[in-house]
């Protein structure tokens, strides 16, 4: 109640749009609380039962005990009305304000179980009080049917009244015969309170024993909706049983139902995954997919479940405000993006723009991410895993280049060239390589539209440093550079070989000329020399044609298109 005088509220008249205006004026808060809920809260927390017990019940004697007991019963019953009138609206207000009753599933289940136990405690307490009332009623009826008895004799403090001694000598037999606790043929029908008498809890002086037994009785009959109760014709007992059955039904529908919902929320993702797998299996069976495709679908579903646990991260992030979405993306992606050499030296604004537009991607083993000749619609930055990048230069026979991509590498660099070209149209570039996942791969993808936007908004991408980094890590440029170096090396080796052969020929001619001047058989030596020279020239021509053809094949590989790095950053 003290907190209610300091708890702000939203003015109902301001709820036209948005959350409304929050009233923080202490005077207005106190005035509103005093006008509506102060009286109800005051009656709910007023310790009237304790006052009656400690002030009146202990000092009462004779028939005053009965009056005090009845007053105490009515006070307890009536005081539960304002308590229920406040507990139920407060619970509803909590759900309406915060959206949930508890943050975690276990906390919600425990809260509803606690409320159910509290209801069992209340029902058990009322059952104990009404059992005492029925036992007292049985005594009074037995006393009225006995001429010696006076109802005042039933209460402590009246042992000095006239006729009490004669009554005390027969009181045990009269009361036990009229109100037996364990007899099936009792003249007084205790109904649902017979169990309280037979168990002896109304005679017991042990509080823990009484409390636990009554709590168990309330919990048992609330759970079974009072199906095992055998009532008498007493109206109050029938009304209590009807109320117990209705309360048990309501509590079972609300509390136990909500608790079950909280517990099921722990496995709801597993159930969704199971249903999705079942639908996928039925669809693959209906479409007669081959076994290898079915196995790939199963492995992808399993891998995606292990990574995300069934949570659609992209939709969750996209539903948040722009500023919060940018901060979350920065937290998740910035460190990973900086591992990519192409972006490690970029400024913070550009990195924020890239992080905001990245989307996570998962690929299983042996997945073809892009094939040679297909349009490239996204640039992929590898976070974890290994990929194979292969090119045949458009299917040219005799040409094959293979490279491996690992963490911090990227593929789809044709898209960056397309994005940096201000004259590029809407047609996406074609892939020059086939990229295949060798292991399970986690990566971030930047789509064509997003990359085009970033390239047009940030001039930092046009710097020479980015140009050199792009050329160094681009697989397309690496392949062209390797082929260019290989062709130059072959031309160099061919030139060296030709020079060496020319020197050998010159030495042979000099040797032949020396032999002719010595007067020997010059004719046969010259014929032999000319024949060997002709054969060497013919063989050299074959080698030259072969080398030229090989060099031309290497030179045929086109130089990759140069991105527009002309606009240097200031």
From TrEMBL:
GO terms for cellular component: endomembrane system. The chain crosses the membrane at residues 36-57, 109-130, 239-259. It holds the Pfam family cNMP_binding. It is found in: Endomembrane system. InterPro entries: cNMP-bd_dom, cNMP-bd_dom_sf, Ion_trans_dom, K_chnl_volt-dep_EAG/ELK/ERG, RmlC-like_jellyroll. The keyword Ubl conjugation does not apply. It comes from the Eukaryota. It is a multi-pass membrane protein. Keywords: Ion channel, Ion transport, Ligand-gated ion channel, Membrane, Transmembrane, Transmembrane helix, Transport. Its main location: membrane. SMART domains: cNMP (SM00100). GO terms for biological process: monoatomic ion transmembrane transport. Residues 342-426 form the Cyclic nucleotide-binding domain. Belongs to the cyclic nucleotide-gated cation channel (TC 1.A.1.5) family. This is Cyclic nucleotide-binding domain-containing protein. It comes from Solanum stoloniferum. The lineage of its organism: Eukaryota, Viridiplantae, Streptophyta, Embryophyta, Tracheophyta.
